[in-house]
């Protein structure tokens, strides 16, 4: 049986997180360009896209500090799956709701990934590298909280627009 050093596990997690954030961008950017009747969602999504771009920069800085690089293959593969997911929802009559559900689930996936990365950084005695990861975690927690707190209002607005024959889809 082979052993894996904590630093190596941490680097793998960093590369996975980098690819995950590329996937997040490939999911959010198409949504943003399609939103018509939900300016509050568009505003929050735009903000989180900018945060996600900063998260990628933080991850790249951590990788660079370890003399490591991202995984271009993982980045590309997850970006493609994100685009496919976004495209799949665009055909749905309740696109805005499906996107909100998917975004909420993805935010919670990211939260779990960052919690794990912070733990690995500390376990590998790389405490200083946990700091930027905690910043990413806080942004993901804030986005998940916003989605959670706004799901009922979004659903109600969707239902009201649908009831009155307005374009509720997006």
Automatic annotation (TrEMBL):
<keyword id="KW-0175">Coiled coil</keyword>
<dbReference type="InterPro" id="IPR047114">
    <property type="entry name" value="YciF"/>
</dbReference>
<dbReference type="InterPro" id="IPR009078">
    <property type="entry name" value="Ferritin-like_SF"/>
</dbReference>
<dbReference type="Pfam" id="PF05974">
    <property type="entry name" value="DUF892"/>
</dbReference>
<dbReference type="InterPro" id="IPR010287">
    <property type="entry name" value="DUF892_YciF-like"/>
</dbReference>
<protein>
    <submittedName>
        <fullName>Ferritin-like metal-binding protein YciE</fullName>
    </submittedName>
</protein>
<feature type="coiled-coil region">
    <location>
        <begin position="42"/>
        <end position="76"/>
    </location>
</feature>
<dbReference type="InterPro" id="IPR012347">
    <property type="entry name" value="Ferritin-like"/>
</dbReference>
């Amino acid at each position: 049986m082979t052993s894996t050093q904590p630093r190596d596990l941490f680097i793998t997690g960093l590369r996975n997180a980098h690819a995950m954030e590329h996937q997040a961008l490939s999911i959010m950017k198409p949504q943003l360009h399609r939103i018509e009747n939900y300016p509050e969602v568009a505003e929050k999504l735009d903000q989180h896209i900018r945060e996600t771009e900063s998260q990628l920069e933080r991850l790249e800085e951590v990788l660079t500090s370890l003399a490591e690089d991202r995984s271009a293959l993982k980045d590309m593969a997850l970006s493609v799956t994100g685009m496919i997911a976004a495209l799949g929802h665009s055909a749905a009559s309740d696109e805005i709701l499906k996107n909100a559900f998917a975004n909420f689930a993805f935010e919670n996936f990211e939260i779990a990934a960052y919690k794990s990365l912070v733990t690995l950084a500390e376990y590998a005695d790389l405490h200083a590298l946990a700091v930027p990861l905690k910043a990413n975690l806080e942004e993901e927690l804030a986005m998940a909280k916003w989605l959670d707190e706004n799901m009922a209002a979004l659903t109600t607005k969707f239902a009201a627009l649908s009831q009155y024959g307005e374009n509720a889809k997006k």
